Amino acid sequence: MRVVVDGVTKTYRDRRGQSVEALAGVTFTVEAEELVAVVGPSGCGKSTLLNMLAGLLTPDAGRVGFEGGLPAGRPATAMVFQEFALFPWRTVQANVEFGLEEGGHPAAARRALARRFIDLTGLDGFERKYPHQLSGGMRQRVGIARALAVDPAVLLMDEPFSALDAQTRQLMQEELLGIWERTRKTILYVTHNIHEAVWMADRVVVLSRRPGRVVEIVPVPLKRPRTEAMLGEPAFVRAAERIWSLIKSQAREALREGVA
Length: 260
Prior knowledge:
Layout: E1 2-13, E2 19-30, E3 35-39, H1 46-53, E4 61-67, E5 77-80, H2 92-102, H3 107-120, H4 136-149, E6 154-158, H5 166-183, E7 186-190, H6 194-200, E8 203-207, E9 214-219, H7 234-257
Parallel strand pairs: 3-7, 3-8, 5-6, 6-7
Antiparallel strand pairs: 1-2, 1-4, 8-9
Helix pairs in contact: 2-3, 2-4, 3-4, 6-7
């Protein structure tokens, strides 16, 4: 499934009722089976963009869309959030089954599909645990398994590892890349972390400070599968330095303005 973002503009009203332009004329594509990251300074509209792709917001101008056949009953997108967003009263198995339950899948099919993605995300043996019994990394794996279980054409990820400690975050990045290698889902991945974006993505879309505009789309010429050794390769360093050079001054201005 190919993702198309074409001339998207979005304005909303803040708590004081003032008009705030979040995005202005944003255009880019994500090709089928591609992993594209979006980075930019705080307040540049990254999450707003994901919410439009998820169907939670509507652009004021331009369009977001998907190109490619989509079988009946298969969702175009599923979202993995920054917060774990699990139901505390449901077990791992029941949390992963939730989207399937909402989609009307029979109980036996729900159980089988959920077990498949529980295994895929390394949660085998934890099916009967509740979220409070799991580490942060494991809770996020449950969120990823739940999103994958409904078989979305596109996986949307909104800073999914930002709440994790550095070591767990690195391990979860590796886990996600392994899952991507096996499933070849189209993924749009929003992050503040430039190194994370470069290490994981095929291309990185760099947005300006508010209102978010595409400053540049930076290709990442690293082979797949990705390995930790690539973090020191000249191609990795050049891509990371290029992205930082594009957003450094704008990030500083956003910080001075207290943009969240």
